[in-house]
From TrEMBL:
Domain of life assignment: Bacteria
Keyword entries, A-Z: Glycosyltransferase, Lipid A biosynthesis, Lipid biosynthesis, Lipid metabolism, Transferase
Biological process according to GO: lipid A biosynthetic process
Function: Condensation of UDP-2,3-diacylglucosamine and 2,3-diacylglucosamine-1-phosphate to form lipid A disaccharide, a precursor of lipid A, a phosphorylated glycolipid that anchors the lipopolysaccharide to the outer membrane of the cell.
KW Iron (keyword) present: no
Catalytic activity field: a lipid X + a UDP-2-N,3-O-bis[(3R)-3-hydroxyacyl]-alpha-D-glucosamine = a lipid A disaccharide + UDP + H(+)
Protein name: Lipid-A-disaccharide synthase
Pfam family for this entry, one: LpxB
InterPro entries per the UniProt record, alphabetical: Glyco_trans_19
Length: 402
């Protein structure tokens, strides 16, 4: 974990910040950045601060601390770094207490963000706690899969919630929370996805953005790649990664198995920014990149290996309420991407699926139909506010410059 500063920097611009974004992962950073860019394009005078990552900084927000280099997921991973997260939580809370933004937008990362919302309400800083700071949440927690009771806590603390997926609105029907389907910005026609389909392009191998899952998943990908190249020796692969410390893990694992790593290039995500990475097929962990690949029409498969304790607890909490891990599969309720999870994620099975993506033309035809259906599903109806318009409208109600 990185060293925390004694205090986070004050706002760059004088006066009260209009909105603070809090996003703890690369996916939340990317989603928030898309919203911030649109908001500032229409209202350049907005004062926006962020606990997030470089995407939000590039979009025009003042980055107070980079949250994307250390995010943990899963019970074991979080508990092992509990002291760090307690200090981080306290210092973010102190910053809000001192600088009093007009609004806070929590983007995903519910394990910390919902606790922050509760603390701001308990301290009387939020509107629902008697204060004047509006609390918004962008991206619903997966209450349709587990921890459904969270919606009642959210009702007590949040002023409004913007959800990515249309079915999520109904999940809050038994609350008074103001919920809006704002669509997925990745599905908008003008959004540049990080990947695009191209028949002769390299294969994408995407082990994730967090160090511990990458250390579990990348060896499986290397094994699958080695088997696949026995029948497809001319193919090349690209591994997109967020930078250190993931790059070091990838290099170390590749160095231990140079034969399996032959034909693989490690590419930082920043180097591909603005120019989508062409891909002919993909093997990937679940997450935001799986959604991007589905919207780009890149065929492939999902694999995931979690800490066994984390997996057991997650399976218990979910209790069979969902059939899939990948969001494209959940949304369309079918195998857009076959899922290979835990012990089922073997190099042999993944290599066979990868070979089928090149040898069976029906897979690509089906992928194109799925892509078009997903894009239509994830766009708001004409005249319905998207995420940037939703937040800007809420800021105008507060008297800010949204």
């Amino acid at each position: 974990m990185p060293e925390l500063p004694a205090a986070f920097p004050p706002p760059e611009k004088p006066g009260r910040p209009d909105i603070l974004f809090v996003a703890g992962e690369h996916s939340g950073d990317e989603l928030s950045a898309a919203v911030i860019a649109k908001m500032l394009a229409k209202s350049p005078a907005l004062k926006i601060a962020a606990f997030g990552g470089n995407d939000m900084r590039a979009a025009g927000a003042q980055l107070l601390f980079d949250m994307t280099t250390f995010s943990a997921v899963g019970f074991v991973e979080v508990v092992s770094n509990l002291s760090f997260y307690k200090k981080l939580f306290a210092r973010i809370l102190a910053w809000v207490r001192e600088h009093r933004p007009r609004a806070v937008c929590f983007t995903d990362f519910p394990g910390m963000n919902l606790r922050l919302a509760k603390a701001l309400t308990r301290e009387g800083l939020s509107r629902k706690g008697g204060g004047d700071i509006a609390l918004f949440h962008y991206v619903s927690p997966q209450i349709w899969a587990w921890k459904a009771h969270r919606r009642f806590e959210m009702e007590k603390t949040l002023d409004s919630l913007g959800v990515l997926f249309p079915f999520e609105v109904k999940c809050y029907e038994d609350t008074s929370l103001d919920v809006h389907f704002v669509g997925d910005p990745f599905a908008e026609p003008d959004h540049v996805l990080p990947v695009r389909y191209e028949a002769g392009a390299p294969v994408l191998l995407l082990p994730g953005s967090r160090p511990k899952p990458v250390a579990r998943i990348f060896p499986v990908l290397l094994g699958a790649w080695k088997i696949f190249r026995e029948t497809h020796p001319d193919k090349r692969a690209v591994v997109l990664h967020p930078g250190e410390p993931v790059r070091s893990i990838l290099q170390e694992l590749s160095g231990k198995n140079p034969e399996a790593a032959r034909g693989i290039e490690l590419v930082p995500v920043d180097a591909a920014a603005g120019a989508p990475q062409p891909a002919s097929a993909v093997l990937m962990s679940s997450g935001t990149m799986s959604r991007s690949c589905s919207l780009a029409g890149v065929p492939g498969a999902i694999l995931y290996r979690a800490n066994p304790i984390t997996w057991a607890l997650g399976s218990y909490w979910v209790g069979g309420r969902i059939r899939y891990l990948g969001m494209a599969n959940i949304l369309l309720d079918r195998d857009v991407y076959p899922e290979f999870l835990q012990k089922d994620a073997t190099p042999e099975k993944l290599a066979a699926r990868l070979s089928a993506c090149f040898d069976d033309p029906k897979i690509l035809e089906t992928m194109r139909r799925d892509r078009d259906e997903l894009r239509a599903l994830l766009r708001p109806a004409p005249g319905t506010p998207d995420a940037a318009e939703w937040l800007s409208g809420k800021l105008r109600e507060l008297g800010a410059r949204g």
